[in-house]
Fold Pyridoxine 5'-phosphate synthase.
Amino acid sequence: MQAIRPIRLGVNVDHVATVRNARGGALPDPVRAALLVQRAGADGITAHLREDRRHIRDVDMERLKAEISIPLNFEMAATDEMIAIARRVRPHACCLVPEKREERTTEGGLDAAGQFAELEPRIARLKEAGIRISLFVAADARQIAAARDLHADIVELHTGAWCDARAEGRSAEAQAEFGRIAAAVHEAHGLGLEVHAGHGLDFDSAALVAALPEVVELNIGHFLVGEAIFVGLEAAVARMREAMDRGRALAARSAAGGAAA
């Protein structure tokens, strides 16, 4: 029986920067938040440097790379400007996402299949710098195959539609969406891609995704920053870590039961 490995938690600190930028000035400091998150047991930090700099700023990326000791995941649009910044900062990984100026948050997955020709040389430039490449995509076999053909290292599956359906009590739709996610996890893993997931996850939904044994990492931001208002950031991260570990333990028990059968 193959061992079920622990699942990693990446924490997105964008929304700490959103609060800072709402008033201006330097506080609250997203780098301080990242250091707290690191101390609380997170395995990585994610930050999205948008073209309009609405939350994370260039100096935040420089400081994060310099001050944290866990991997930095640079979330970004695949533009020449962002590629140049990433090649200078040299994060552990870059997660390429679609980006529209009018959206409040990333609304869907990257069209890796439809944008293959323009993504291919940009991904190559990032890989030349020794940066791991993740593509934030929908749970769709066509997009996952394109990620493999683009030589991405990772796919991060967009869990937002499933989380929205759960939150709104649309149980049949939620069940169907989760089935698509589970199938996409299996498909991506079979193609040799590392599988991450994120968007809209809370304690309960994170535990359910963590029970999919082929998922290696969850990236969570908005929920944790919101929960931190009530319990503090370190406590929120610790509880998320516990929820994910609980889900992973369920996966291990299921695997052991299958092997026994």
